[in-house]
Amino acid sequence: MRWLSRRNGTLIISIVFGCCIIFLMNQSIHQLLTGNTVVTHVDYETSSKIGKAHSNRVNIVQDEEKADLYGKVRVLCWILTSPDNHKTKALAVKETWGKRCNVLLFMSSDADPVLPSVKLPVREGRNQLWGKTREAFRHIWNHYRDEADWFLKADDDTYVVVENLRYFLSPYNTSKALWFGHKYKAIVKSGYFSGGAGYVLSKEATRRFVEEGYFNALACRHDHEGAEDAEMGKCMQNLNVSAMDTRDSRGRGRFFPFVPEQHYFAGKITPSYWYWNNIYYAPTQGRECCSDSAISFHYVNPQQMYIYDYFLYQLRPFGMQADQRPSTPEPPPDLNLTAFPWFAPKEETTTITLSATNTTMADINVSNVSDVPSVSNVTEATDNKTKVVNKWKAVFG
Ligand SMILES: *[C@@H]1O[C@H](CO)[C@@H](O)[C@H](O)[C@H]1NC(C)=O
Ligand SMILES: *[C@@H]1O[C@H](CO)[C@@H](O)[C@H](O)[C@H]1NC(C)=O
Ligand SMILES: *[C@@H]1O[C@H](CO)[C@@H](O)[C@H](O)[C@H]1NC(C)=O
Ligand SMILES: *[C@@H]1O[C@H](CO)[C@@H](O)[C@H](O)[C@H]1NC(C)=O
Ligand SMILES: *[C@@H]1O[C@H](CO)[C@@H](O)[C@H](O)[C@H]1NC(C)=O
Ligand SMILES: *[C@@H]1O[C@H](CO)[C@@H](O)[C@H](O)[C@H]1NC(C)=O
Ligand SMILES: *[C@@H]1O[C@H](CO)[C@@H](O)[C@H](O)[C@H]1NC(C)=O
Ligand SMILES: *[C@@H]1O[C@H](CO)[C@@H](O)[C@H](O)[C@H]1NC(C)=O
């Protein structure tokens, strides 16, 4: 092979090397855009360098057909943060799960050119969170309404699996007035969602919030004070936005107001603990605590965020099967919003059996539980829910 001079050889090596770099860059750009691992079918048999020793197919996590929800279910994520957290918690969100959102915005009381953050016309402080939320949604509606289909609010210590959020939302119609999160039964009759677990509004819900709620003090609290999530709940109810069930078909939650260990090892379940007293649907524990398609956890500190990212997007058991989930998730048990809220048993218990879809009025005594919206006329409530049912029949067939 005399024709292959040293110079030509170098040239060929350079070209091959260059192509590799371009290929790798393409891969990482795709990853950056989709947040998904690109499936790579590397058939070692066809690669002469590696020879005949192995014939392995590397089949990672998701195939591209399922991963293409990025452009179909566009999610804007806005993070409720404050100047003290810009360089710590907010930065961790930006460097981990936040980059997988279609649009990522940090809402603060101060502008930060590095993060960057949006300076909202609010003061700082815990009792100003409702004001921040009002202003944040208004800013988003005015500037980004066409850039996303769904609008997620999360705290700077919420961790979100954005792919699972897209998967979960994919069968819903964003032109309907809907919102989703971890449901509580107190304060608001139809339930409201934990602020820390994060909640997501459809485009129609966002429109109502800004165009019908923002200036209407009768529907939505007009000043900046109040508990953010509860005020949001009242407002959404007044605007006829449905508080949907986000559990999977087996009744396991997807949005969580604590870190996974708190839900996995739930401890004693009694009505005396505010959480058990407020949770809307029956909780589950242990391996059944949380959906395989879980979406969010709260109280996740910055270091944990990087660890979650490592476990979810980098570490892989060798030979792991590709994703087996159906391309559309099974509907939740309470899609029709007809389930009665769950109440913690009076006796201390550490195990909860799944009965969420099967609670009847005989199991609970609503009139004996304080701080809970009363279901005064079951027939009427059921009739009201039937209207929702009819809306949703179309979605799931
Ligand atoms: C979504 O809802 C809107 C408003 O109700 C309706 O006009 C539209 O046809 C729905 N889209 C689908 C795909 O069902
Ligand atoms: C909500 O629904 C009720 C009853 O259907 C209706 O009277 C009210 O005008 C609706 N409110 C909004 C803001 O759509
Ligand atoms: C919702 O209600 C419809 C009609 O009442 C029923 O056929 C369907 O099974 C219900 N779906 C769920 C998930 O409860
Ligand atoms: C409720 O659950 C019990 C046992 O778990 C089952 O036998 C029964 O058929 C269920 N009832 C309904 C209405 O789903
Ligand atoms: C519920 O409790 C009230 C008193 O707290 C009682 O009068 C009522 O009979 C109870 N209802 C049922 C169905 O047990
Ligand atoms: C209502 O709850 C109170 C406090 O938990 C309890 O003492 C009382 O026996 C309950 N009444 C009924 C009817 O269950
Ligand atoms: C419950 O509502 C239905 C339908 O609106 C009505 O016919 C019935 O009288 C009501 N029952 C009570 C006890 O208020
Ligand atoms: C049913 O809906 C009507 C009007 O939308 C409302 O006035 C009534 O309070 C609702 N009833 C229940 C039990 O939710």
From TrEMBL:
<dbReference type="GO" id="GO:0030145">
    <property type="term" value="F:manganese ion binding"/>
</dbReference>
<dbReference type="GO" id="GO:0016263">
    <property type="term" value="F:glycoprotein-N-acetylgalactosamine 3-beta-galactosyltransferase activity"/>
</dbReference>
<dbReference type="GO" id="GO:0016020">
    <property type="term" value="C:membrane"/>
</dbReference>
<keyword id="KW-1015">Disulfide bond</keyword>
<comment type="function">
    <text>Glycosyltransferase that generates the core 1 O-glycan Gal-beta1-3GalNAc-alpha1-Ser/Thr (T antigen), which is a precursor for many extended O-glycans in glycoproteins.</text>
</comment>
<keyword id="KW-0328">Glycosyltransferase</keyword>
<keyword id="KW-0808">Transferase</keyword>
<comment type="subunit">
    <text>Homodimer; disulfide-linked.</text>
</comment>
<comment type="similarity">
    <text>Belongs to the glycosyltransferase 31 family. Beta3-Gal-T subfamily.</text>
</comment>
<dbReference type="Pfam" id="PF02434">
    <property type="entry name" value="Fringe"/>
</dbReference>
<keyword id="KW-0812">Transmembrane</keyword>
<feature type="domain" description="Fringe-like glycosyltransferase">
    <location>
        <begin position="79"/>
        <end position="244"/>
    </location>
</feature>
<comment type="pathway">
    <text>Protein modification; protein glycosylation.</text>
</comment>
<dbReference type="InterPro" id="IPR026050">
    <property type="entry name" value="C1GALT1/C1GALT1_chp1"/>
</dbReference>
<keyword id="KW-1133">Transmembrane helix</keyword>
<keyword id="KW-0464">Manganese</keyword>
<keyword id="KW-0479">Metal-binding</keyword>
<keyword id="KW-0325">Glycoprotein</keyword>
<dbReference type="GO" id="GO:0000166">
    <property type="term" value="F:nucleotide binding"/>
</dbReference>
<protein>
    <recommendedName>
        <fullName>Glycoprotein-N-acetylgalactosamine 3-beta-galactosyltransferase 1</fullName>
        <ecNumber>2.4.1.122</ecNumber>
    </recommendedName>
</protein>
<keyword id="KW-0547">Nucleotide-binding</keyword>
<dbReference type="InterPro" id="IPR003378">
    <property type="entry name" value="Fringe-like_glycosylTrfase"/>
</dbReference>
<feature type="transmembrane region" description="Helical">
    <location>
        <begin position="12"/>
        <end position="29"/>
    </location>
</feature>
<keyword id="KW-0735">Signal-anchor</keyword>
<keyword id="KW-0472">Membrane</keyword>
